[in-house]
């Protein structure tokens, strides 16, 4: 019986589990949450979630974090050799932006990027400052903290070389993320089984246990998170991502404020407003940045979503919530927290129309400009990215043997698309053959994803909202002016030097929030090479005990 491990229990992961079970596989599903369903099916904490029947037929690992991937024992040699070759080829393919020292991390794990462990596990301290020479996140994942030697560093110990890099076995090259690095990525495609390193237990608990999984097939359904474009004052308390506001409303029945403005781009703004109204908040308005003509042209006649749209429109009308096209939040103001926001009308490219500013008195603002995929584990596994999303074939296979991807990490398309892709991935991963109905449904939902992108694009002129003192990286308080100066400094070529010079992306979120913005503003490529994919305490990392499962 094939063992299929699914990372992520949202719509894609649950559909994958169902169809893998139907095809006769032994299925294990992991999720960081304590309940299945993801953001889409999120319900009030402690209440039945409706997936009990499915959970009874599979291994369910709630509150579980996959913090590293590596090639399983016996499968590493050829893959590692190819990774090193691919990493060097990738640097050449991207213009040789890295120095020789930058390339010590054979699997594209840049030294500067890996040297900081954010979050509560390391207290935001740089490993170099902590006296630790490096982290081996997969070529001996646990040893891990002490030193890196062996073939990835050309036989030299990284501590002796003065490097704080990382070697990730099973990860493809830096070329896998570049637009034209497909050849190098294919050359470095790892084969064989992967080993997953898992932490089980509440993220803020002190007794998480370490486990190891070696599945026959892996399905990545890690989803996406909000993308929020910066604007002056967005670092103030009271400015929330749209997803965070909805999670609190749906999961805890808590409103983020009494008077709330919802703004950004995309249809997700509508269910967010609905959720806020349901918990008693006054929504003063919903602002869609794109013009009505752009939205209508992009959607066309998409009748299958008409009923859902009508429900949202009726809810807004019943509560007298105005909905405006072509307006954005350009500034949040307040002393200790947000007290008011300034909005303005924008053109089709999102450039601000002077003289159209309007101020709203609020105590919270929820902003979301679409979504950003979470491909860290996919990159660690060696998958190729295309425009930031994991590239898959018609069977949801990635470029890595026995690794599949489904849902928002392959393209933003909503819950229906995620379910359809998950169904195909689960069937194939378990050794089955998807029927024509499954494939047709998957293809139909991909059409929805294409319409979504056309109807709610990100306008190219949005940086015009920014001032030099606007904070871009909130973790490290890096300003737009500092980024511009560093991007124009010939002494700081490439994303590694930019990070070291400005610390943008080196804070607790590890560039998950500011990464796309920094890359766009500075003309660099966003990098997702994180050998340690999730925060882990140094004590947990040093613990040699891992339980096979």
Fold and architecture overview:
Residues 213-422 form the FAD/NAD(P)-binding domain. Residues 86-104 have a biased composition (Basic and acidic residues). Keywords: Oxidoreductase. Residues 86-107 are annotated as: Disordered. The structure is a single chain. The chain has 549 residues and is an alpha/beta fold. The protein has helices at 11-22, 52-55, 76-93, 111-114, 158-161, 182-187, 242-252, 269-278, 292-299, 306-318, 376-381, 414-429, 436-455, 480-487, 494-502, 515-522, 538-542, and strands spanning 3-7, 26-30, 59-61, 64-71, 194-200, 209-213, 217-220, 224-226, 239-241, 259-265, 282-288, 323-325, 327-333, 340-345, 358-361, 364-369, 371-373, 385-386, 389-390, 403-405, 471-473, 478-479, 547-548. The strands form seven sheets. Strands 3-2-1-7-20 form a five-stranded parallel sheet. Strands 9-16-10-11-12 form a five-stranded parallel sheet. Helix 8 packs across helix 10 and helix 14 (480-487) packs across helix 15 (494-502). It starts with a strand and ends with a strand.
Question: Structural class, from helix and strand content?
Answer: alpha/beta
Total strand segments: 23
Number of helices: 17
Strand order of the largest sheet: 3-2-1-7-20
What percent strand?
Answer: 15-25%
CATH topology-level fold name of the domain at 3-73 and 192-225 and 372-434: FAD/NAD(P)-binding domain
Largest sheet: 5 strands, parallel
Mean pLDDT across all amino acids: 78
Which regions contain 5 or more consecutive residues with pLDDT less than 50? 76-190
Amino-to-carboxy terminus distance:
15 Å
- Envelope shape: globular
CATH superfamily of the domain at 3-73 and 192-225 and 372-434: FAD/NAD(P)-binding domain
Region (Disordered): 86-107
Organism: Amycolatopsis camponoti
Domain FAD/NAD(P)-binding: 213-422
Pfam family, one: Pyr_redox_2
